[in-house]
Amino acid sequence: MKPVPRELVEHLIPKNSDTGLKPRRVDEEANMSGGLVYATVENECAAKIYLYVEDGEDIQLAKRSDWVYALCSHNGKLYDGGSYDKVYETLENKVVAKRSGWVEALCSHNGKLYDGGYNKVYETLENKVVAKRSGWVKALCSHNGKLYDGGSYDKVYETLSSKLLVEKYITAMCSVDKEIVSKILEAGK
């Protein structure tokens, strides 16, 4: 992923009284190249979300009252979730979902946004529970047209069918392309 060059970034986010950030926008060419967004911990519990800017100062996108555990790009918007028991549309600083516990995973899958936390996986924007689990959902992954979840319940499920795939404690998952799988198989690992 190529970072957004500083000279192409003028403004990115709307002014928001909660963050005190100035309005920004992204030049169309920079937006097409994509960028790297990351979250940091500030003052032991508060967090900030930034856009990495190559050869320049990173741009603060949002502040949160507690740790950010998940970031996800979905349908042209950026979302974040964390120990503040909510999912935000990050750039608008708008709460799109409230949860009774931490949001530890976000995933864009087949045109829908999903989030996971304690005991449940939600279709985020519809606030609909799509799966119940017996512990923390630590990871969500879209792979080959299916959504998968894993976590402290020592299993990986095909989320929407609840088909069991793996029985291990899961902290992270990602989908990899065929080239990586081929290299692994060729190396005999």
Q: SSE layout and pairings?
A:
Layout: E1 4-5, H1 28-33, E2 37-42, E3 46-51, E4 53-54, E5 59-64, E6 68-74, E7 77-82, E8 86-89, E9 94-98, E10 103-109, E11 112-123, E12 128-143, E13 146-151, E14 156-158, E15 163-166, H2 178-187
What does this structure look like?
By secondary structure, the chain is mainly beta. It folds into two domains: 1-65, no CATH class; 68-189, Methylamine Dehydrogenase, Chain H (7 Propeller). Helix content is 8%, strand content 49%. The chain contains two helices and 15 strands. The chain has a six-stranded antiparallel sheet, with no helix packed on it. A four-stranded antiparallel sheet has the order 6-7-8-9, with no helix packed on it. The protein starts with a strand and ends with a helix.
What are the defining features of this structure?
189 residues; mainly beta; Methylamine Dehydrogenase, Chain H; 2 domains; 6-stranded antiparallel β-sheet; 4-stranded antiparallel β-sheet; 8% helix; globular
CATH superfamily of the largest domain: YVTN repeat-like/Quinoprotein amine dehydrogenase
> How many whole angstroms does the radius of gyration measure?
18 Å
The N- and C-terminal alpha carbons lie at a distance of: 27 Å
Element-by-element helix/strand order? EHEEEEEEEEEEEEEEH
Q: How many strand elements?
A: 15
- Residue-averaged pLDDT, rounded? 83
CATH topology of the largest domain: Methylamine Dehydrogenase, Chain H
Counting structural domains, the number is 2
Low-confidence stretches: 1-32
Number of discrete helical segments: 2
CATH architectural name of the largest domain: 7 Propeller
Can you identify the CATH class of the largest domain?
A: Mainly Beta
Q: Roughly what percent helix?
A: under 10%
The largest sheet is: 6 strands, antiparallel
Name the beta content range.
Answer: over 45%
Q: What is the strand arrangement across the widest sheet?
A: 10-11-12-13-14-15
